[in-house]
Specification:
alpha/beta; 2 domains
């Protein structure tokens, strides 16, 4: 199964069914809606990676409305608009609002699958980068803790070396006492 869950929003039942079947045949998870309102409801209650929506649909919510709602819900949802040739300029404007791409009718499925593969690849790269960032954070935290512990050990050892030096350079004790006291300090090292 492909990693993407795709919401198909189209008022044309033939196109909707065709898209659904072709996507299922390619092992994508597929949800379908016959208008923008139902599409937004599905977005609200389901995890969706990609929205494939018709730009022009009857009713209160068209493809731009679905795009805007999807981006408000989750900025990472990719939206591909389906448009007739006459509305390409509108589709380009929609891309300025966050759509990742557009396809012209009739849909070229080779193009669609290439775009979906690109989206899946980019999501995989982003997940890998996030995993790498988290691993680096753990490594940095572990390194900082190790350095802090080493600084404490070095400070303790330096203090003991300073005590031994003070004992060995002292004129108040005999050589045997100096050696015995220094060996006592050394034997307590961990």
């Amino acid at each position: 199964m492909n990693n993407l869950t795709i919401l198909v929003v189209d008022d044309d039942p033939v196109i909707r069914r065709l898209l659904e079947q072709r996507l299922i045949n390619e092992n994508y998870g597929v949800l379908v809606a016959e208008d923008g309102s139902k599409g937004n409801d599905i977005l609200l209650h389901n995890h969706v990676d990609v929205v494939l929506t018709d730009l022009m649909m009857p009713g209160d919510i068209d493809g731009i409305g679905v795009l805007e709602f999807a981006k408000e819900l989750e900025r990472d949802i990719e939206v591909i608009l389906i448009t007739a040739h006459s509305s390409v300029d509108t589709a380009i404007e929609a891309m300025k609002k966050g759509a990742s791409d557009y396809l012209e009718k009739p849909i070229n499925f080779t193009e669609l699958f290439l775009r979906l593969e690109k989206i899946d690849t980019m999501r995989g790269l982003l997940r890998s980068a996030e995993d790498l960032r988290q691993a680096m954070d753990v490594t940095e935290n572990t390194a900082a803790s190790t350095i802090q512990n080493l600084e404490i050990v070095v400070g303790t050892l330096q203090g003991q070396i300073d005590n031994i030096e003070a004992i060995l350079t002292s004129d108040a004790k005999t050589a045997g006492e100096k050696i015995s006291k220094s060996l006592d300090i050394i034997s307590k090292w961990k």
